[in-house]
Design goal:
mainly alpha; 18 helices; Na+/H+ antiporter like fold; globular
């Protein structure tokens, strides 16, 4: 059964998507602020989880994390691209980028929402984001056979900025402005809703003309994005099948709550609107995934193999 918070989140995000399509001229300028919006979401996550918790997670699950990282950045593109290039070649590049992109900066928020292991997903977000400038161009070169003509140093700088600015800002905030930090942490849910709404308005406002002019492709893209989301989440569950449910659900989230906003930017840079639209429409299953993953965690608890309870606030 969905909680009130889940229902409110879904109402906010889907209405903001619709508003972006209906009033693109008024909201499309928010698209330029997508990286900052994502950093805001990660900042709120870092307020809840101390950096030491990430290090503890790296030491506690070295093999599991290495396997999850290898799966996210290497194995999934190797599995998905050869299949889709034969079946739906027009969407192959977009699916390759979505399969091989890093865990999303908003993934820790959703992990907490479904009661899974936040530090595990936050560690995945940090590590895969920092490795992405090396792995994604490599996978495109190996599988597609062409260079991803992108400023790799600029991409590396952007990825580092998106990780370390929120990390440092959260540390300074806790030390210098403890009352403000406590207030932000307490109200992180409504603040996150505002950021999600702004992100959807910007993303869908940018591509509203394409969405309106290519409705058949939009329907196909939505179906494909749901299929991709289901595949990624299921892969994570199977990969961590012998782990406690909070870790199992976290693995599913780490593979399916991805940095699709970066793929929107890459698609725009590559002059491939279909890739950008597919990445934008992946936001729909991105949000809907809270329903099955919430039930997965709850259902596994009811089966009696819950193991250790999820630790959402790794504070010392």
């Amino acid at each position: 059964m969905l909680r009130i918070k889940d229902i409110v989140l879904l109402i906010v995000v889907f209405n903001s998507m619709a508003a972006g399509v209906i009033w693109p001229n008024e909201v499309c300028k928010l698209g330029a602020f997508l990286p900052w919006i994502l950093m805001g979401l990660l900042f709120l996550a870092f307020l809840k989880v101390f950096p030491s918790a990430i290090w503890d997670t790296l030491r506690q699950y070295p093999v599991k994390l290495a396997l999850l990282i290898l799966t996210k950045l290497i194995m999934l593109p190797l599995i998905i691209y050869p299949l889709v290039i034969k079946l739906i070649p027009a969407y192959a590049l977009g699916l390759l980028l979505l399969a091989g992109v890093s865990t999303g900066l908003s993934a820790p928020f959703f992990t907490g929402l479904v009661g899974a292991n936040i530090p595990l997903v936050l560690a995945m977000t940090v590590v895969t984001t920092l490795l992405l400038p090396l792995t994604l161009p490599l996978m495109v070169k190996v599988l597609v056979g062409k260079e991803l003509n992108f400023d790799l140093m600029g991409l590396a700088g952007l990825m580092a900025t998106m990780i370390f600015v929120p990390l440092l800002a959260s540390g300074f905030s806790r030390r210098l402005l403890p009352r403000l930090s406590a207030w932000l942490e307490k109200h992180s849910y409504p603040l996150s809703l505002v950021l999600f709404a702004a992100m959807n308005l910007g993303a869908f406002g940018l591509y509203a003309p394409f969405l309106k002019a290519n409705q058949s492709q939009v329907v196909i893209s939505i179906l494909i994005s749901f299929g991709l989301g289901a595949f990624l989440a299921t892969f994570g569950v199977l990969l961590f099948w012998s782990s406690p449910p909070p870790e199992r659900t976290a693995a599913a989230g780490a593979l399916s709550w991805i940095n699709n906003v970066l793929v929107i930017v890459l698609g725009n840079y590559l002059n491939d609107p279909l890739t950008s639209v597919l990445a934008a429409l992946y936001l729909i299953p991105y949000y809907v995934l809270i329903i099955p993953l919430s039930h997965l965690n709850g259902g596994l608890r009811n089966r009696g193999d819950f193991g250790k309870p999820p630790v959402n606030d790794y504070k010392e």
